[in-house]
Amino acid sequence: MKKSYNPISDVRNETLDLTKRLYRSITDVVHILDEQRGRASTVLDLFVPNLEAQRMKLRDYCERLMFFDPVNCGRKSEELLWRKGFYDVVSTAKRLRKVPLWKPAETCQLRSHLQAGIGHYHHILLRLQLDFKLDLRGIIDFP
To answer: Do the Cβ atoms of 1 and 26 come closer than 8 Å?
Structure first.
């Protein structure tokens, strides 16, 4: 008996395969970030170049997954992006702070991190508007 060729199932399999690979890449990066965050002894240890590079990878992978499969993986990838890419860094910095006041270098690093996060979410909102042809003027406070 001959196997029939079904292009629809091939496309679904390719989509599922790419989704799985992206999600696997995200979990690998999250594992590295969690491991390094656990080893940090000072706030500045959270902002070493290799951790920044891993967070950039996480942002890229999560954004790709968010827009590649928004129905199945959009919410989960956005949650991982927020928690592992931005929130965990700030919460760990608060936990590692030894004195009541932040040092100037720590303040600078945290401020840069938060501004990068705000900029990234602005970028995501712009991309949502473009990809899904949304007009969000007047709905959200965003230029």
So the answer is: no
Is residue 109 pLDDT above 80, yes or no?
A: yes
Residues 6+ apart with CB under 8 A from 22: 61, 64, 65, 68, 73
Q: Where are the domains of the chain?
A: 16-131
Q: How far apart are the C-alpha atoms of 97 and 106, rounded to whole Å? A: 9
**How far apart are the C-alpha atoms of 136 and 125, rounded to whole Å?**
9
Q: What is the mean pLDDT of residues 51-79?
A: 96
pLDDT at 137: 84
* Residue 41 · residue 96 · CB < 8 Å: yes
